[in-house]
């Protein structure tokens, strides 16, 4: 078994889509970044890379490379899945939390779990996604950005 953890943070900006877990969420602000800035998928992918001791997302998908400009983070997660399989592992479980003051996430979480499970070729019951608010504290509470944290367990293929 291997365990990985990660945190990802992106600022909220106008004229950007809000994409979390591969789901477009109606909101006046979106996350800013080189890719679609999906903090949830970034935290999940980077926790897997960490468990495999393969570095971070920037090492594999540098923001200086124009081919990643605006790319779906789900596509990046599928590349990370291929690296995981190449190393002989599969998902034991993923436990992720989104930190966002607004919008409320409850209505989107099932679709996020479905998207992540599909990309990682595992059952949805291995993917946990939760959300919490900043309670008006810090950059999350002031609605300046959204963060996500993730822990994953990888199991060696038999």
Automatic annotation (TrEMBL):
Catalysed transformations (reactions): 4-CDP-2-C-methyl-D-erythritol 2-phosphate = 2-C-methyl-D-erythritol 2,4-cyclic diphosphate + CMP
Cofactor note as given: Binds 1 divalent metal cation per subunit.
Record CDD domains: MECDP_synthase
Residues the record lists as binding 4-CDP-2-C-methyl-D-erythritol 2-phosphate: 8-10, 34-35, 56-58, 61-65, 100-106, 139, 142
Entry superkingdom: Bacteria
GO terms of molecular function: 2-C-methyl-D-erythritol 2,4-cyclodiphosphate synthase activity; metal ion binding
2-C-methyl-D-erythritol 2,4-cyclodiphosphate synthase domain ranges (all copies): 1-154
Keyword tags: Isoprene biosynthesis, Lyase, Metal-binding
BP GO annotations: isopentenyl diphosphate biosynthetic process, methylerythritol 4-phosphate pathway; terpenoid biosynthetic process
InterPro entries documented for this protein: MECDP_synthase, MECDP_synthase_sf
EC numbers on record: 4.6.1.12
Positions marked as site (Transition state stabilizer): 34
Positions annotated to bind a divalent metal cation: 8, 10, 42
Pathway recorded for this protein: Isoprenoid biosynthesis; isopentenyl diphosphate biosynthesis via DXP pathway; isopentenyl diphosphate from 1-deoxy-D-xylulose 5-phosphate: step 4/6
Subunit structure: Homotrimer.
Cross-referenced HAMAP family: IspF
PANTHER family in the cross-refs: 2-C-METHYL-D-ERYTHRITOL 2,4-CYCLODIPHOSPHATE SYNTHASE, CHLOROPLASTIC
Family: Belongs to the IspF family.
Role of this protein: Involved in the biosynthesis of isopentenyl diphosphate (IPP) and dimethylallyl diphosphate (DMAPP), two major building blocks of isoprenoid compounds. Catalyzes the conversion of 4-diphosphocytidyl-2-C-methyl-D-erythritol 2-phosphate (CDP-ME2P) to 2-C-methyl-D-erythritol 2,4-cyclodiphosphate (ME-CPP) with a corresponding release of cytidine 5-monophosphate (CMP).
Name of the protein in its database record: 2-C-methyl-D-erythritol 2,4-cyclodiphosphate synthase
Organism encoding this protein: Floccifex porci
Originating gene: ispF
């Amino acid at each position: 078994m291997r365990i990985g953890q990660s945190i990802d943070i992106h600022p909220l900006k106008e004229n950007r889509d809000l994409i979390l877990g591969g789901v477009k969420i109606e909101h006046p602000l979106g996350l800013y970044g080189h890719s679609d800035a999906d903090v949830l998928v970034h935290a999940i992918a980077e926790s897997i890379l960490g468990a495999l001791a393969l570095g971070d997302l920037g090492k594999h998908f540098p923001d200086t490379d124009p081919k990643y400009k605006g790319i779906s983070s789900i596509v990046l997660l599928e590349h990370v899945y291929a690296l995981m399989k190449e190393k002989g592992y599969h998902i034991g479980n993923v436990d992720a939390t989104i930190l966002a003051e607004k919008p409320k996430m409850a209505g989107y979480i099932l679709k996020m779990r479905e998207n992540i499970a599909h990309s990682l070729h595992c059952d949805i019951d291995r993917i946990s996604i939760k959300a919490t608010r900043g309670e008006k504290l810090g950059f999350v509470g002031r609605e300046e950005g959204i963060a996500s944290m993730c822990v994953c367990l990888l199991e060696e293929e038999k």
